[in-house]
């Protein structure tokens, strides 16, 4: 039986990935600081562990796995990433995890490992125009990420690529662009824009007002979780190294994202734009390279994914109010 290791399996993407691998017949070990919050894990073995400890990494990578997915990181939405208050933890925690995992995997002769980087590595000066951001893979250098989170991701990309060169490991690197869907964090300060807006709209009555950070003209693209898993697995099982963007090219402003969610909810809302952390003015996945080399592209629209996500978050909000 094929064996897979999912690091960060208690998180949003990791928990969905465990389910996908189980549906393919894998024996799966999941590792995280916590169990998935909204559903029981389907992992055959789930280890609560702190991957900043190298000895623990040796314990969880105690055999040769056919596939390793490294999603574990210290992360969150704009309210966590862009305030500057968490920079030291973000950089230290995530870099330590990646250093430990790569070296342990090498010593266990685990060759095939996927690393989830981020669109946050792209230079902020290429994302000043909300209508024309440049996020092509070859635009990453000269480097100028807009946050310490982005700098750590860029360092770790280079770490994985170095291990691939020097130790002939089959490392694969993807730059995720705003993954969303059901069973993701929707409250507490670490939620991302789609979940935060779904929650705010679910909480207000028809005709109510919601607050949106920044001018609302800042643009992003958002990728539904099922599409993310398709691209991730296809990349890991390919002979391509990366980095590749895994995201949607359907760009939308944050205000228009709120309006689209309101339309799906059946509510009329008023948007109150207030000061708050927003990141770059514009960001959109450029999928030309991954389409050409891996023949991958999203198959669903943003509206389809948001419809499922809003329904789930709306149910969560009502449950929490009972």
Automatic annotation (TrEMBL):
Membrane-spanning segments: none
Record's keyword annotation contains DNA repair: no
Start and end residues of each NAD-dependent epimerase/dehydratase domain: 4-247
Organism: Temperatibacter marinus
Entries under InterPro entries matching the protein: Epimerase_deHydtase, NAD(P)-bd_dom_sf
Keywords: NAD
UniProt keyword annotation of NAD present: yes
Protein name: NAD-dependent epimerase/dehydratase family protein
């Amino acid at each position: 039986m094929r064996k897979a290791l999912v690091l960060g399996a208690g998180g949003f993407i990791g928990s969905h990935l465990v389910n996908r691998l189980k549906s393919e017949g894998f024996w799966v070990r999941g590792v995280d600081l916590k169990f998935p919050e909204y559903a029981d894990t389907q992992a055959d073995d789930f280890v609560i562990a702190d991957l900043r400890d190298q000895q623990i990494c040796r314990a969880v990578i105690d055999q040769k796995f056919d596939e390793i997915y490294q999603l574990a990181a210290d992360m969150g939405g704009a309210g966590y990433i862009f305030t500057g208050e968490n920079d030291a933890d973000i950089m230290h925690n995530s870099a330590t995890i990646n250093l430990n995992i790569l070296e342990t995997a090498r010593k266990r002769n685990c060759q095939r490992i996927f690393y989830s980087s981020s669109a946050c590595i792209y230079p902020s000066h290429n994302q000043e125009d909300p209508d024309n951001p440049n996020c092509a893979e070859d635009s990453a250098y000269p480097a100028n990420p807009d946050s310490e989170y982005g700098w750590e991701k860029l360092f770790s990309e280079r770490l994985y690529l170095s291990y691939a060169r020097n130790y002939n490991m089959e490392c694969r690197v993807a730059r995720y662009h705003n993954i969303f869907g059901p069973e993701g964090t929707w409250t507490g300060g670490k939620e991302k824009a789609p979940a935060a807006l779904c929650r705010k709209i679910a909480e207000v009555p028809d005709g109510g007002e919601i607050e949106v950070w920044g001018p609302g003209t800042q643009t992003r693209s958002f990728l539904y979780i099922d599409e993310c898993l398709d691209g991730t697995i296809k990349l890991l099982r390919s002979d391509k190294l990366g980095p590749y963007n895994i995201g949607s090219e359907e760009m939308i402003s944050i205000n228009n994202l709120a309006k689209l969610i309101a339309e799906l909810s059946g509510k009329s809302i008023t948007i109150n734009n207030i000061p708050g952390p927003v990141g770059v003015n514009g960001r959109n996945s450029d999928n030309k390279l991954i389409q050409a080399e891996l023949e991958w592209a999203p198959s669903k629209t943003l509206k389809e994914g948001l419809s499922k996500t809003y329904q789930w978050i709306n149910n969560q909000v009502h449950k929490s109010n009972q």
